[in-house]
Write a structure and sequence with these properties.
The strands form 5 sheets. A 4-stranded antiparallel beta sheet has the order 7-8-11-12. A two-stranded antiparallel sheet has the order 1-2. The chain has a two-stranded antiparallel ribbon with strand order 3-4. Helix 6 runs parallel beside helix 22, helix 18 packs antiparallel against helix 19 (about 450-460) and helix 21 runs antiparallel to helix 22. The chain has helices at about 5-15, 15-40, 60-65, 70-80, 120-125, 130-145, 150-170, 170-185, 215-230, 240-255, 275-295, 305, 310-315, 320-335, 360-365, 365-370, 385-400, 425-445, 450-460, 470-490, 495-510, 565-585; strands at about 45-50, 55, 90-100, 100-110, 125-130, 195-200, 410, 470, 520-525, 530-535, 545-550, 555-560. It is about 50% helix and about 10% strand. A hairpin with a 5-residue loop joins strand 9 (about 520-525) and strand 10. The protein is of the alpha+beta class. It contains 22 helices and 12 strands. The longest helix has 26 residues, at about 15-40. It is globular and about 65 Å long.
């Protein structure tokens, strides 16, 4: 059997022309890296003595404050809007038919489609539902906190919510829910409801070849229930297919082995039992239980459970099953915290402690739920307050902050978009790895081995600095600001200080990574070759990537997927909520 290196390089060694092409790629990359580093050497970084960190954008470095008045935040928000930093570019012109009615849909693309021919590959061709869902969630939150100021955001958020509800409620998608409920843990990634869709197949009828076992339809379920609970939408707005989708989630999770089944998680990689995904799912159970306890109608959620025969399987009514799963989920999250996937041998690729996806533990309110029920936390099984649980998670997230960029690593040892990632040779290696694992899956008649794929990428691509990501900063800032608003309403002075400081800190980290002028990165052109590309100023990067030339000179630049559209919305949410909160504080 050939070695890993032989397997990956065989495609280049089969013919002299391929070997020559690989050699030429090395030469092209050497020139590309030299030009990239030289071009960015002319770009300044702007130190803010007030904040104590460097900013990519000179104006934002001057604007940034250790704390902000409401007036300063209004001006900051207006400036970012004027510079189009907070734009929400939507793909329109598509329709989806649900229950016999054709609905126009507006969908959030992954990144800004460039007018210079830049090729974003799948990110230009696929609709990623999670990006869209988190955007709709943010717009709803802004509207609910200040309906007058954010009226347009509320209207757009509602339209975006139903656009993605339509996508998840097509006959093909509902058929997948039924299949997974009937099949259980044996259902494959392709057989799960599709959470990324080709723009020419929004009904989801064909294969998508994606890692569909993750957290996306769960986030949509929680968003829809939260919207119902808070009066953003009404039950009468839901079609029968929408209700069937929402009602399918509890029986599907019960069928596949909640709370211990494995998913690919937010990073869409190999499957593992992930705390971040379980946090969202447990929040769904909590939302259903609290809505029912408050006398709100959630009976429509039980229909799929009853019709699928799940009650006979579990021996519980729908509402009893929800309470049972809530208790299971809370105890399991509590046991795992503050780690993401601790239930594996420490030498396993699946074992992980710190992970930026743990942000969802905070965003979906798990510390409050755990503390309210005195759930034991961690391997020591201690009873902790909600602040203590938050601090456990925050300490792990803080350990992922890159001290140079103040972005956040996804996790330590992450090889995705690591050193020199967007260069010709590295992408040839990545392409060969993908081809190998797909070929092996075809030969074995099974699924792609995502663990092998990730281990090969780690082994064969350049070692060096991991990418640091920006969107978790907006998530943490907006989470902390919401907690600040709660403390403000309760008159909790220590809580107000705690959460405001966190909200402002992560906002400033986020602002420090907004792009400035005369910055360059590498990106594929229309012909699939890597070229230097000028980065637009005032854009929120997907992540920051390190590059190194042959002589060891380095630079760190925004990824070619800049802006990451939903990352821009996370910044919009954090600035908006802090503005609203600061006005409320003035009134208090």
């Amino acid at each position: 059997m050939p070695s890993v290196e032989q397997s990956v390089t065989t495609r280049f060694e089969n013919a002299d022309t391929e070997q020559d092409r690989f050699t030429e790629l090395h030469a092209q990359d050497a020139r590309l890296l030299d030009n990239l580093i030289a071009s960015n050497a002319q770009t300044g970084e702007f130190y803010s003595p007030l904040i104590g960190i460097r900013f990519a954008n000179e104006t934002l470095a001057a604007i940034a404050q250790p704390d902000y008045s409401a007036e300063q935040l209004v001006l900051l928000e207006a400036h970012l809007e004027e510079m189009q930093t907070l734009n929400i570019p939507l793909v329109t012109g598509h329709t989806i038919t649900i229950d016999g009615t054709e609905h126009p849909v507006s969908l959030l693309g992954a990144t800004e489609l460039a007018d210079d021919g830049t090729n974003h590959g799948e990110m230009s061709k696929m609709f990623y539902l999670r990006d869209h869902i988190q955007t709709a969630r943010a717009l709803m939150e802004l509207y609910l906190q200040d309906p007058e100021r954010y009226r347009q955001e509320g209207e757009l958020g509602r339209h975006m919510l139903f656009s993605v509800m339509h996508c998840m409620s097509t006959p093909a998608q509902l058929g997948r829910f039924r299949h997974v409920i009937a099949t259980g843990p044996a259902a494959t990634q392709e057989e799960w409801p599709h959470i990324s869709l080709w723009f020419d197949d929004l009904e989801g009828e064909g294969p998508n070849g994606w890692r569909n076992k993750q957290d996306t339809f769960q986030m949509l379920t929680h968003l829809a229930l939260d919207a119902l609970d808070r009066g953003f939408i009404d039950e009468s707005d839901l079609s029968s297919s929408h209700k069937q989708f929402l009602g399918s989630v509890v029986p599907l999770l019960a069928a596949v082995g909640f709370p211990n089944y494995e998913t690919s998680g937010s990073w869409e990689e190999f499957a593992a039992s992930r705390t971040s995904v379980l946090a969202v799912e447990t929040a769904i159970m909590h939302k259903i239980a609290t809505m029912a306890a408050a006398g709100k109608n959630v009976d429509f959620l039980s229909h799929v459970y009853d019709q699928s025969g799940m009650q006979a399987t579990t021996g519980r009514t729908f509402h009893d099953q929800v309470e049972h799963m809530l208790d299971q989920g809370l105890h399991e999250v509590g046991r795992r915290l503050p780690f993401e996937s601790p239930d594996y041998d420490k030498n396993s690729v699946k074992y992980r402690e710190e992970d930026a996806a743990l942000t969802y533990v905070l965003m979906y309110g798990l510390p409050q739920m755990l503390a309210a029920k005195n759930i034991p936390i961690g391997k020591d099984q201690r009873i902790l307050s909600e602040h203590q649980i938050e601090d456990l998670v925050l300490a792990r997230l803080e350990s992922l902050i890159d001290p140079e960029t103040y972005g956040m690593l996804r996790y330590k040892g992450d090889s995705y978009q690591r050193l020199n990632f967007h260069t010709g040779v590295v992408q040839k290696i990545v392409g060969a790895i993908k081809a190998r694992v797909k070929r092996e899956a075809t030969e074995s008649g099974g699924e792609v081995n995502l663990e092998d794929k990730q281990q090969l990428r780690d082994l064969l691509t350049p070692q060096g600095r991991e990418a640091s990501w920006v969107h978790p900063l907006g998530q943490l800032s907006s989470w902390a600001t919401k907690r600040y608003m709660e403390a403000l309403q309760e008159g909790d002075a220590p809580g107000m200080q705690r959460y405001r400081q966190l909200g402002v800190r992560y906002l400033n980290y986020n602002l420090s990574n907004v792009t400035g002028s005369a910055q360059w990165n590498t990106a594929l052109d229309a012909d699939g070759a890597y070229q230097l590309r000028a980065i637009k100023p005032y854009r929120v990067p997907e992540c920051l990537i390190a590059y190194q030339s042959a002589d060891g000179t380095t630079c760190t630049v925004a990824s070619p997927h800049t802006p990451l559209n939903w990352g821009s919305v996370m910044l919009k949410l954090s600035v908006g909520l802090l503005t609203v909160a600061s006005k409320q504080a003035q009134i208090k």
